[in-house]
Amino acid sequence: MTTSRPCIQSNRSLAQIIAGLALACSLLLLHGGCASVVRGGSEKLMIQTSPSGASVRLSTGQSGTTPFEVEVRRKDTIFVSISKAGYKPLETAVISSIDGASLGIGTAANLLFLPVINDIVDYQTGANYSHKPNPLVVTLIPETSAENYPLVAPPGSTPKTP
Q1: In a domain, 148, yes or no
Q2: Total domains in the fold of the chain
Q3: Which residues contact 103 (CB under 8 A, 6 or more apart)?
Q4: Residue 87: inside a domain, yes or no?
Q5: Where in the sequence is the domain holding 27, given as residue range(s)?
Q6: What are the pLDDT digits (tens) for 80-119?
């Protein structure tokens, strides 16, 4: 007498398999890129003036008095207005640009874990960016001086409104 073994059949439908894969991909996307995890999407921007005590207003809507430290999004170029009684006002920009060291380290690590997805996440969060100059150090010029500030915002730049 021969006994046949029943075949093991999967009860999973194609829709369940696709849903499982979609869930796995979503979880991997949420974990973020390497630079996003290590550096984050924001950084501290420091603004110093000589003399100190100048009023600072950023294009992000943040304001304070020097020495001034504030958390800003890495990916945004920040326009800065500085003023103090008896001194010429200054308007300049702190430029957001890709940080080569972060990009190299982040991309190398991302090659090990979902290369394309992690690089996209790092780009979207701004984790591969840094502000330059940081710190922004300004020597204020007295109103009575004929001297002018040498700093100029880059051509074609427009501030972001809060």
Answers
A1: no
A2: 1
A3: 35, 128
A4: yes
A5: 14-139
A6: 999 999 999 999 999 887 766 544 554 555 555 555 555 5
